[in-house]
Amino acid sequence: MIPMQPGQVASMVRMVTGTRPDEIGCDECFEQLDRFADLHLAGKSAAEALPLVQDHLDRCGDCREEFELLLASLRFETGDQL
Amino acid sequence: MTERTNQEWIAALQGAQADAAIADLRMVLLRGLRYGMTSYRVTEADLEDFVQEALVKVLDNLPSFRGEARFTTWAQKVAARVALSELRRRRWRDVSLQDLMAEYEDSGFTPAVLTDQGPDPAQIAQRTLMMEKIQRMIAEELTDKQRQAMMAVMQGGMPLQEAAQRMGTNRNALYKLLHDARQRLQKRMLREGLTPDEVLAMFADN
User: Fold this and answer.
1) N or C: which end of chain A has fewer CB within 10 A?
2) What is the ipTM metric for this complex?
3) pLDDT at B137
């Protein structure tokens, strides 16, 4: 048995019901992450251009953390506020 | 520092004067990481180590750069992954999957489910039944590996990278394994006519 707290059951159910068949993995996300970040910083809709990357970032904590650090690092060049 | 187009970066890094280009790239990555990691607990020596490792990876993988983004963005994403991989390794260094499991077992899931938010006996009974149903679905639909991964990542909050390393696999493969697990549970919920709203009404925090 997997021990679970009530809030964990709820988050598991949300994760399960939102599952889609065409999800990409971390490798594919990483491959496209630079393009995704450039689109985002250019003010274009990265999520519309690369919806599966956005979907993966919404689900995967490791990749989302890397994307956020990438954006923060790139903002040095553009001089944007964090 | 010289401003370069993508083609100029590639040519410079592979040319006779590569040292100057490498020094420039090192500066770009270091400035970026230093700026991006202000809220992380890292030292300047850490940042330099991350950048050094990232540079090696970037140079090794130059042929795989497809030019779909700026070269510096491509290189910076490598640095971001290197840095966070190392920080995750450090943070989770002393935690085994067994430790995580024991922690949850010690916290005792049953009392929480029964008492946290359900003082009403009818509600307690409903919750217990639903919990048994969910546990049965997990037991019947998932492999041991999938259950272990789910416990570590979804319940224990362990990064995929760290869980993967402990399970003798890699992050991408573990994501796919968990995706398959979610799909199996999704189908089973459909077959059992279990709607998310029904479950969430019982277990949501608010």
Assistant:
1) C
2) 0.91
3) 93
Mean pLDDT along residues B29-57: 97
Cα nearest neighbour of A9 on chain B: B203
What pLDDT, in 10s, does the model give residues B146-158? 999 998 998 888 9
Q: What is the pTM of this model?
A: 0.89
pLDDT at B108 over 50: no
Residues near B99 by Cβ (< 8 Å), separated by ≥ 6? Answer: none
Q: Which of residues 110-169 of B touch A (CB under 8 A)?
A: 112-113, 116-117, 127, 131, 134-135, 138-139, 147, 150-151, 154-155, 159-161
Domain with CATH 1.10.1740.10 in chain B: 6-92
- B-contacting residues in A 9-28 (Cβ below 8 Å): 9-17, 19, 21, 23, 25-27
What are the two backbone dihedrals, phi and then psi, of residue B74, each rounded to the nearest 5 degrees?
-60, -45
If you write DSSP's letter for every residue of A4-68 in order, what string do you get? --HHHHHHHHHHHHT--TT---HHHHHHHHHHHHHHHHTTS-HHHHSHHHHHHHHH-HHHHHHHH
Task: Please indicate whether, in this complex, the C-beta atoms of B179 and A25 are within 8 angstroms of each other.
Answer: yes
Asked whether the beta carbons of residue A9 and residue B35 sit closer than 8 angstroms, the reply is no
Query: What average pLDDT is seen over chain B?
Result: 90
